[in-house]
Design goal:
This protein is α+β, with helices and mostly antiparallel strands. It has two domains: 93 residues, Alpha-Beta Plaits; 94 residues, Alpha-Beta Plaits (2-Layer Sandwich), CATH 3.30.70.1560. The strands form two sheets. Strands 1, 2, 3, 4, 7, 8, 9, 10 and 11 form a nine-stranded mixed beta sheet that branches. β9 and β10 form a beta hairpin. The radius of gyration is 17 Å and the shape is globular. The protein starts with a helix and ends with a helix. The N terminus is likely disordered.
Length: 199
């Protein structure tokens, strides 16, 4: 067997806005295949078409399970630009958990950012309304319900306009630019396992 094909790959990718988190799309939309040409890797978790930021891909099924299985409670950190400025009551609601489809979300770590984060421009700007201010909130989750951050912020009256994932466990987005990827080191992979084990 070709050694290059048999090698296990695990990478961190900065998924741009408007890219599907899979390698094929019958509708011809942009996918991971436009940016990544590695055999056998697949996304460990999701990041919706209209969300951006850190996506881990691996050809190691055990590692993928560790990243995605909610029992490991691997923290995932998001920056959400929301409509209007949340007050402490709204932030506390997010921290305690909100009810989505009859189920309460796990407690989250939430803080209002005082300054806008340094992020690359999005190719499609957010909808801008002159009389509606926006704010950035950092949200750390330990579960991965479908479109969870967007549904949580909407539930407390602050719809998300832009969403960027900046960390998964010990792996951070860092200075990766949209569309760029890098290999994870063996030390980083060990840190993922140890972060899961501590929960």
């Amino acid at each position: 067997m070709n050694r290059a094909l048999s090698r296990v790959h695990t990478i961190a990718f900065n998924k741009p806005y408007g890219v599907l988190p899979c390698f094929t799309d019958p509708e011809g939309r942009s996918t991971l295949a436009d940016y990544i040409d590695l055999p056998g890797v697949y996304a460990a978790g999701r990041l919706d078409l209209d969300s951006e930021g850190l996506l881990l891909l691996t050809s190691d099924g055990t590692l993928a399970h560790h990243i995605t299985d909610p029992q490991h409670k691997l923290p995932k950190v998001y920056l959400a630009q929301v409509e209007r400025i949340p007050n402490e009551e709204a932030l506390e609601q997010l921290r305690k958990g909100v009810v989505l489809n009859g189920k309460e979300t796990r407690p989250a770590e939430v803080r209002l950012l005082q300054d806008d984060p340094q992020l690359s421009d999005r190719p499609v700007p957010i909808r801008f309304r002159k009389n509606v201010p926006t704010a950035w909130v950092e949200i750390t989750l330990r579960e991965g319900l479908n479109r969870q951050v967007r549904r949580m912020t909407a539930a407390v009256g602050h719809p998300t306009l832009r969403l960027v994932r900046v960390a998964i466990g010990p792996i951070v987005l860092g200075d990766l630019q949209p569309g760029q990827w890098r290999d994870l080191t063996s030390r980083e992979i060990a840190q993922i396992y140890s972060a899961s084990a501590r929960r």
